[in-house]
Write the structure tokens for this entry.
Amino acid sequence: MKKHYSKIVMAALLAVMGAGELHAQSAIYACGHIRRTRTTAIQNLKNSGYTTAILFNVDVAPDGTLITDYSWDNQEAAEAGGIICQDGEYVFDRYQPHYVDDIKSLLAEPTSINRIEICIGGWGNGAYGHIRDLIKAHGTGEETALYRNFKALKEAIPEIVAVNNDQEQDYDLETAVAFHRMMAELGYKTTIAPYMNKEYWRELVAQLNETPGTCEIVYLQTYGGGAGNRPADWKVFGDIPMYIGFDCEASGNRAEMERKFTEWRDNDGVAGGFLWNYNSESRNVNEWATAINRIFPTKSVENGVTTFYQDINYGGYAVSLPEGTFSQAELALYGLQAKDITSFKIDAGYRITLYMNSNCTGSARIWSASTDYVGDSWNDKACSIKIERTGTPLGLPHADTTKQTLCTVWDTSGSRLTVSGAGSSTVILYSLTGEKIASASTQDKNKAVIDTSNLPHGIYVVQSGNATAKVLKR
């Protein structure tokens, strides 16, 4: 990795869907940005489409203390950095009180993340030299600083399932094997991120997997110092799945990434892709993740009932979906980017609801037929989708249609609708197709008045909070 990023990072890479069962995945190395700009970055990562989060990196100090973005010589923490574990205790909450909850929340639905790793190493990082010296001096027993500190980290964040080895200096096979066997005893799988020294990595994996499954993924660096790597030349790890990387920080060329990943998928048998890195909001993580997911499908559909298109007249990339409700995170796993729908085809007997918010909330509109253009007001606006059979009850945003608790009264001319018992500060009037027609704020005594003078006669649905009612304008 880049030498100025030997700090903690969160990456979304490949996921384990079950014990020993690995699927094609997308991934990203996400840097200390997820701590510096936590409220934005954590939510964006959950909605991105990446499936594994790797914390890059956990540094190991000379005495076995675990640190990140921390100067051991000066005993000073950089922004959002500090000591993670020391003397067998997790102490990072003194520096970053929200960190444990943030990492746990990455796995909380709705999310695309289903695997979390930590990374040790990186260009210019001396962690493995310190690990070598500590193991040669003290071994890997339960009383050692290495054992106690990584045990404390596992206990604080048990959701971390693996340690990602990004060893780029201080190669020492004997102590690396001992370290990763110790980590296996603590409950951590091993993954590797090599860019050179192929025989070292081959032997490391071979010795670790004398206990089958200890090392389970290869993240091959095909950028930076590994730019000349061809995945087919690294097929020395048996049947362990290989994922290939792209440096979006250096290039920023998504078309180039797509070209390389497609070529390596078709010709070199790789199973997934990852990016270096996520360290700001200058790049749309959802855009890049969905592009990878269309190359290495995380989820796919054999018999979809709808197909969504990027461009007008059913052009651009296409993603088919079955009946169901799809948050932004779920759509991303299928390869459908948020705010990227322009046309769609619907099978007979189904309708779709497009939502502007990520979790099927907010402004919504219903269609029951295919369209070659969604219109200016909805083009590139939808972030989540509901697909239903046309015979199912109409579902409106935030509405419980079983509750008919609102009192609604038309005036004699039909030009106003008065709503009593409103459950929120806003009352919304919808057509039966789900199109928002008008809204009004509640006034005294929890009432609202909506101007309906320009509406045609017919049936409408009025909603306030979780309450709805059907009304007829004669």
Summary: The CA atoms of residues 197 and 206 lie 15 Å apart. The two ends are 69 Å apart (CA to CA). Confidence is low (pLDDT under 50) at residues 1-22, 395-404. Residues 254-268 form the longest helix (15 residues).
